[in-house]
Amino acid sequence: LFKFIVVFLLFQKGFSQTIQWTEKTSQYNLPAGIRFYEGTMSNDPVFKAWYAIADLSNQNLAIRPYASTTRKDLVQFSSEVGAYVTINGGYFDMTTGAIYSSVVYPNEVKYQNVKTLTRNSQSYPVIRSFFGMNKDFSCSAEWIYHFSSEMSGVYKFNNPLAYSYNDPNPKPAPQPSDGVQYTNLLTGIGGGPMLVKDGVQRLTYNEEIFWGSGVELNDSRPRTAVGVTADNKVIFFVTNGLKLSDMPTVMQSLGCVNAINLDGGGSSAMAIKNQTIYNQGRAVPAIFCVTHRDSLNLPKTPTYENIIDTEMPQVEKQGGW
């Protein structure tokens, strides 16, 4: 079996490790435009990471989320929707299954990013991260806020609110005039914090108020992330153990110019079709997938047009004209 091995030396911002990536695409029946890699560290035999890269210039491929009112095993969920590659989505309530991160279907906001959080017995408005595919199938990472449950109520912002760690003072809620309507949005998933924005590492852990959430910055645990390269290839990433503070460097090393973190810990999971890549057994209510573009159920683009005028010789007039 031919193996293609890539070695990345990651030494930016305190992360000094060597990840060896081995291509495993040939072991899976994946369509053209998708490649798959497994990563290891020679000095850490327990460490594993995986990423799939999907080229959205391929007209058969798209990315989209799916949500369920009941939590499901990720591999089962992936198999049910017929996805090529699946990772877990954003944040949710472990007891009730309520979804706290955006889930956007074509022309429909299924769930919204959380808009306020309780910290220090106060209510804090918050702007959080979102990874979206636009109507032209380009992808980006944005900070968004929902002003309504409609697509027209999704606004994106240049920055999240300027909170500091354990900030004692809630900020005023954002206003539509502070941002811009996300008019070209097609599908996407919410999460956070931001990892890479416009080619620059932007770990907005404090600004998105992940302090006090149980999402720790500097402990090693399973992680899930999604990003996009400059040539619009989407990367789905999962690992069994990294610090959140390491994630911007890792995603940037894979070529991402925009990337966000998704739910981690026991929720982190990945499947290729109905095959488990990494799964800790925690059921999740939302997933993010590489799918066939037909799954979007978009109106077909006409390939033939013929305009008929009443004065044309092939037109007959009948009735009381």
| Content-based structural category | mainly beta
> End-to-end distance, in Å?
75 Å
Order of helices and strands: EEEEEHEEEEEEEEEEEEEEHEEEE
Number of separate helices: 2
Trace the largest sheet across and list its strands: 1-2-3-4-19-18-20-16-17
Q: How many whole angstroms does the radius of gyration measure? A: 22 Å
Write up what this structure looks like:
It is a single chain. The N and C termini lie far apart (75 Å). The model is unreliable at 1-14 (pLDDT under 50). The relative contact order is 0.21. This protein has 321 residues and is mostly beta strands. The strands form 4 sheets. A 9-stranded antiparallel beta sheet has the order 1-2-3-4-19-18-20-16-17, with helices on one face. β12 (139-146) and β13 form a beta hairpin. The chain is built from 2 helices and 23 strands.
Summarize the structure.
The chain is mainly β. 5% of the residues lie in helices and 44% in strands.
Descriptors for this entry?
single chain, 321 residues, mainly beta, 9-stranded antiparallel beta sheet, 7-stranded antiparallel beta sheet, 2 helices, globular
Layout of strands and helices, then pairs:
Elements: E1 5-10, E2 17-23, E3 34-41, E4 44-55, E5 61-72, H1 74-81, E6 85-88, E7 103-105, E8 108-111, E9 116-119, E10 122-125, E11 128-134, E12 139-146, E13 154-157, E14 180-181, E15 185-191, E16 194-197, E17 200-201, E18 221-229, E19 233-242, H2 247-253, E20 256-261, E21 269-272, E22 275-279, E23 284-292
Antiparallel strand pairs: 1-2, 2-3, 3-4, 4-19, 5-23, 6-21, 6-23, 7-8, 7-15, 9-10, 11-12, 11-15, 12-13, 13-14, 16-17, 16-20, 18-19, 18-20, 21-22
